[in-house]
Every structure is written in structure tokens, then in C-alpha cells.
Write a structure and sequence with these properties.
By secondary structure, the chain is α/β, with parallel strands linked by helices. The protein is built from 14 helices and eleven strands. Bound molecules: ligand TUI.
């Protein structure tokens, strides 16, 4: 399956695994890379030393290209950005901010830079400062989100830039993949589907919550603080939304979510932790290997594209 993204990154399938904080470790990144997609180590809020160790381990497991996602609110983002260069990581994706200040350094080192954007303005800004491609991430996604839906965002970003666009948000099967291609994307990024991959090292309770989730089970907290985050509804999201409605301040709200993702991923506390997942969780109900996921999605996409064409 050749697209501008497979050619740019030297991968077999235009499928990128989301760089999920606490979730996307070197096991998952290497498994996705081995299956022909782009695997990512999610740096999240981890210290640079931990990310460097993850990169080393990933290199030991695979010869295929893999990347690192930098969450730009990480206080050690500068050191992680430098480590990417020093360690010869081939691809970097960024989230929750603008990576402009690292761009010159990465370009000079030949790192492919793929910022995640949630608006046309940000997409244009990233192209201007030298991005090689973009992930256009709709509000259906889990975790930190923007306002626009994937359906509205992707074609508008595709029209606004010349670099290849990867669609994300609400995509978990071949139909979503095919639809993204129809919107003009050259590939897809998926997080939620990979949450339940066999190679994903998260607590069994987290996987079970995702597998059992229905279409209406996610909630968005933090709209009032300017940090909207989508997660599966639980005692934490309910309490958060109640406090938000009552006009609670930033500090009180932050306290509620502090360490919430770690609580859910590592401790398996899916009641009080932050069980980040996208709106498509209702469709994700089986644990498969990364290779099975990628194979099934590409087969299904090819099938639905040929079926639909016959109907026309
Ligand atoms: O970054 C994400 N998703 C994330 S990061 C994350 S870790 C976290 N944990 C607890 C609380 C908050 C975060 C969990 N999920 N997706 C990529 C993404 N980036 N979505 C939206 C954006 C974005 C937002 C603003 C990109 C650029 C941007 O620009 C702001 C600016 O500088 O103008």
C-alpha cells in the first residue's frame, strides 16, 4: 500500500500508532514497526532519561523505522528533543503545542517532523516552519483534544497545505481508514485500537474498560481550564464535571487529575484514574496483535473501497 506517507517514512502501511503517554512504550512501538506501520514511543510526561532508555530498547528490538512523540507540555521537552537528534531517531511527532523552536535542529539532523494539529491555522504554521507531514487530529480522539471533528478538519487541512496529511480521531477499522483516504489523507493514526493490542503493556482493567465501552462512554473534562481531555466516564470524570459546573478553580481541578493517567494505566484504578480513550472505543472489543490489527484494517479498507466503487 503506497502513499506519500509510506514513501516519506520508508514503511509498508500508512498506519501510525498514537504516541500515547504511559501506554506507548518500546514494546508497542517495536511491534507496530515490525508489522509495517509507524510505531511511536510516547514520551508523555516522562523524564528525558526514561525516554532515552526506551529508545535504546526499541532499537534493540527492531531495525525498522520508529518515532518518538513529544508532548510539548513536558518540562523536559528540550532534553528529549535533543536526545532524538543524538540517538538518530528517524521520526518525531509532537502534541499539545508548537514544536517551532526545535524545527531547525531536527531538520538539520534529517529527522522527519510530523506535528499533530487540530486546526488549519496551526497546520499552515507548521508547514511554513518546515514540517514534513502533519497529523490532523479530530476531537473524537482520546486524551488532549481540539474542537473540530475529523470529518471537518481533515479535508480543510488537506486543502490548506501541500505536505501529506495523516488523519486521526475516530478511526479504528478499515472503513475509517478508507474514509480518511477519501477525505484526502495519505494515512491514519490510531490510538484507541492499539490500546488493546496484545503487545500493549497496560493494566488489564484499562483494556477491559476499552473493550466494554459503548459509543457514548467518553466524556470531556477541562473545557473550562483550556485543557480539554477525553476519557472514559468514571467517578473521576463525573466529579470533575460536577466541580467544573460549580465553577471550581484550575488548581482544584488539576488536583483531581494529578497522576490520573498513571493511576489508570499502571495501577489499574479505572474508577479514579484517567482512562483516556477516543469516541471509537465502542468499536474496539478484541485483543489482537499489532500485525493482526494492521493486516485486518488494510484488508478491510481495500475491500470496502472496491465494494463501494461497484455500487456507483
Ligand atoms: O497531545 C495530544 N494528546 C494527548 S497529550 C496527553 S498527556 C496529557 N495528560 C494529562 C493532561 C493533558 C495532557 C494526552 N493526550 N494530541 C495532539 C494534540 N495536539 N491535540 C491537540 C493538539 C494541539 C493543541 C494546541 C496542537 C497544537 C496546539 O497549539 C497551541 C499553540 O501553541 O498555538
Amino acid at each position: 500500500m503506497k502513499t506519500r506517507i509510506t514513501e516519506l517514512l520508508g514503511i509498508e502501511y500508512p498506519i501510525v500508532q498514537g504516541g500515547m503517554a504511559w501506554v506507548a512504550d518500546y514494546h508497542l512501538a517495536a511491534a507496530v514497526a515490525g508489522a509495517g506501520g509507524l510505531g511511536l514511543i510516547g514520551a508523555g510526561g516522562a523524564p528525558a532519561s526514561a525516554v532515552i532508555e526506551q529508545i535504546k530498547q526499541c532499537k534493540a528490538l527492531t531495525d525498522k523505522p520508529f518515532g518518538v512523540n513529544i508532548m510539548l507540555l513536558n518540562p523536559e521537552a528540550d532534553a528529549i528533543a535533543q536526545a532524538i537528534v543524538d540517538m538518530g531517531v528517524k521520526v518525531v511527532t509532537t502534541g499539545a503545542g508548537s514544536p517551532e523552536k526545535y524545527m531547525a535542529m531536527w531538520k538539520e539532523a534529517g529527522v522527519k517532523v510530523i506535528p499533530v494539529v487540530a486546526s488549519v491555522a496551526m497546520a499552515k504554521r507548521m508547514e511554513r516552519c518546515g514540517a514534513d507531514a502533519l497529523v490532523a487530529e479530530g476531537t473524537e480522539s482520546g486524551g488532549h483534544i481540539g474542537e473540530l471533528t475529523t470529518m471537518a478538519l481533515v479535508p480543510q487541512v488537506v486543502d490548506a497545505v501541500s505536505i501529506p496529511v495523516i488523519a486521526a480521531g475516530g478511526i479504528a477499522d478499515g472503513r475509517g481508514f478508507a474514509a480518511a483516504l477519501m477525505l484526502g489523507a495519505c494515512g491514519v493514526q490510531m490510538g484507541t485500537r492499539f490500546l488493546v493490542a496484545k503487545e500493549t503493556n497496560i493494566h488489564a482493567n484499562y483494556k477491559e474498560r476499552v473493550e466494554k465501552a459503548s459509543d457514548i462512554d467518553t466524556q470531556v473534562t477541562g473545557r473550562s481550564t483550556g485543557h480539554p481531555v477525553r476519557a472514559l466516564r468514571n467517578a473521576m470524570t463525573r466529579q470533575y464535571l460536577k466541580l467544573e459546573k460549580e465553577g471550581a478553580g484550575f488548581e482544584e481541578l488539576e488536583y483531581l487529575t494529578l497522576g490520573g493517567l498513571r493511576k489508570a494505566v499502571v495501577d489499574g484504578d479505572v474508577k479514579n484514574g484517567s482512562v483516556m480513550a477516543g469516541q471509537i472505543a465502542g468499536l474496539v472489543n478484541r485483543q489482537q496483535t499489532c500485525a493482526e490489527i494492521i493486516q485486518e484494517i488494510t484488508d478491510e479498507a481495500k475491500q470496502v473501497m472496491s465494494d463501494r466503487c461497484k455500487l456507483l
